[in-house]
Amino acid sequence: MVADGKIEIFFPVGKGLVVSLFTSTILSVTAGAVFYFTSLQENYLPSISTVILVTSTLLGGSVAAKSAGSRGLLQGMSVGTAFFILLLLLTVLAGNQMSAIVVLKKLFYCVLAGGVGGIAGISFR
C-alpha cells in the first residue's frame, strides 16, 4: 500500500502476524496431539517448539513481504519482532519465567526467520 509516497508497513505486518499466530497455533496443537497419542518423549519438546517458532515466523514474514510487494527484509523482521513481543507478553501474563539467554535466543530466531521469510516472500512472488 502506498500513501503519499511512503509504504504503509502496518497492514502487511499485521497480516503476517496473523499468519504467524495461526500457523503457531495449528502446529502447537498438532505437536500436542502427537505427544499425547504416541510414545514420543517430552525431551524433544524444546526442539519441536523451536521449529514451530521458526516456521511460524518464516511464513508470517513471507506473507507480509508478498503483501507489501517490497522491502521484504524489513517486513519480515518486523513480523518477527512483533511475534516475539506478543509471545513474550503472553509468557509474562501466564506467569512463566525465562532466563535472559532464552529470551535473547527466541528474539534472534524470530527476527532471523522473519527476515529470511521476508526475503523469500519477495523472491517468490
Give a written overview of the molecule.
Keywords: Membrane, Transmembrane, Transmembrane helix. This is TIGR04086 family membrane protein. The chain has a two-stranded antiparallel ribbon with strand order 1-2. It has one domain. Helix 1 packs antiparallel against helix 2 and helix 1 crosses helix 3. A hairpin with a 2-residue loop joins strand 1 and strand 2. It has 125 residues and is mostly helical. The chain contains 4 helices and 2 strands.
What is this structure's SSE topology?
Elements: E1 2-3, E2 6-7, H1 10-37, H2 45-68, H3 72-93, H4 100-123
Antiparallel strand pairs: 1-2
Helix pairs in contact: 1-2, 1-3, 2-3, 2-4, 3-4
How would you summarize this macromolecular structure in one to three sentences?
The protein has 125 residues and is mainly alpha-helical. The chain contains 4 helices and 2 strands; from the N terminus they run ββαααα.
